[in-house]
Amino acid sequence: MFTIQQSCSAWRIICFKTTKPTPTAVWWSVKCHTGPEVVLQLNEQGAPHNQVTKRHRKERSLCQQVLERFDQQYSQELGDLWPSARAVLLDPHSWQYGVMLNRFTTVTGITQILQSQGFSTLLPQTPSLSSPRPTLQCYIHPYPLRFPSQAHRPGQLKQYYLLNAASLLPVLALQIRDGEKVLDLCSAPGGKALAITQCATPALLCCNEPDPHRRDWLSKTLESFLPQSLISRVIVSAQDGRSFGQSEAGTYDKVLVDAPCSNDRSWLYSCSSQQGEQRLKERARLPALQTQLLRSALSAVRPGGAVVYSTCTLSSSENCAVVETVLNDCPEADPEDLWEEIAIPLAKYFTFSPAHPGHGQTPHKLGILVVPQPGKTWGPMFLSRIRRRK
Ligand SMILES: C[S@@+](CC[C@H](N)C(=O)[O-])C[C@H]1O[C@@H](n2cnc3c(N)ncnc32)[C@H](O)[C@@H]1O
């Protein structure tokens, strides 16, 4: 039984109770804008308690300079999609969360709980998507309900990882198969590396992260989710990704470049105007870094192998423009169209941008863009797949 009211700009779930008796009976409530967020609690066995925790979220302060820059740029680049994308980015309480299950743990109990709470599986058995990733399971909810994150328990693997479901798309685009050598060039905190291990069992997964603090975070993520048998195939490396391609030329079957970018969700909430200014300066320097990382990835991949380039910004100068620059001076690289393979089968769950500025006849040739929209708040996420010719 549940009651839903629409108030403010978002759906407000007033109360939600399963019809099952305790201990599975549970109340959920998500408030919009003000008041506590009520989060489902799980007990030691992973079953929900019949009690809830109230968390008063700190309101985040908006960075006006960043918003003004986004308004100027994205109203031109996204046209009619921008006002609704803007509304989602400005309302963190509307954001949805995906729950990616860990295939190395027993997930039956969690699956039952998720289904009983109204979650459903994101990846249908769509022929074009299902073959390379039969083991990847992610659950999503139509409303912005947040499943609790799991605390670290020594000696026990975590059963699930919370993420923006659009983060799975670059991993799907990699089409990882058992026995491949895979490089995750910009890896921390490790969400996509984990998703890679859910899709298949690589012969080698190299997770590269030059920032020591973030590399520490990455190692902890890997340890909490992967069994020893797989950890032995995973290497954590600390190189500057720009020179990786020179040191390990032609080594990998697949390379993911989940590049540092102007993360649109978090950059809107910079702490001070000084930080906002700093970020806008940094933003101008990012395309050069991204271009070098993508070139390096194309050197690290073997002939016939594939590179996926992704970012979590809507900015075309960090997305299509980077891909175009690299393709212009790399004649042995071909972009592959992800529209039929990913955008069409998953259009029910994600809003893909219909076109990119300046690419008239083949708007999706250089990549596809997930634009957050009300009720489908996933993204921003840009992805492009480039194959190195044999
Ligand atoms: C968008 S995040 C990656 C997120 C990660 N793939 C995941 O799914 O959890 C980009 C990462 O690139 C790293 N980075 C920054 N400069 C880099 C460089 N020159 N080479 C490689 N990685 C770099 C950042 O420290 C950051 O951790």
From TrEMBL:
S-adenosyl-L-methionine binds at C186, S187, A188, P189, G190, G191, K192, E209, D240, D258. The keyword Signal does not apply. Residues 89-389 form the SAM-dependent MTase RsmB/NOP-type domain. Its main location: mitochondrion. It is found in: Mitochondrion. Signal peptide: none annotated. The keyword Nucleus does not apply. The active site is at C312. GO terms for cellular component: mitochondrial large ribosomal subunit. GO terms for biological process: rRNA methylation. Keywords: Methyltransferase, Mitochondrion, RNA-binding, S-adenosyl-L-methionine, Transferase. GO terms for molecular function: RNA binding; RNA methyltransferase activity. Belongs to the class I-like SAM-binding methyltransferase superfamily. RsmB/NOP family. This is NOP2/Sun RNA methyltransferase 3. It comes from Sander lucioperca.
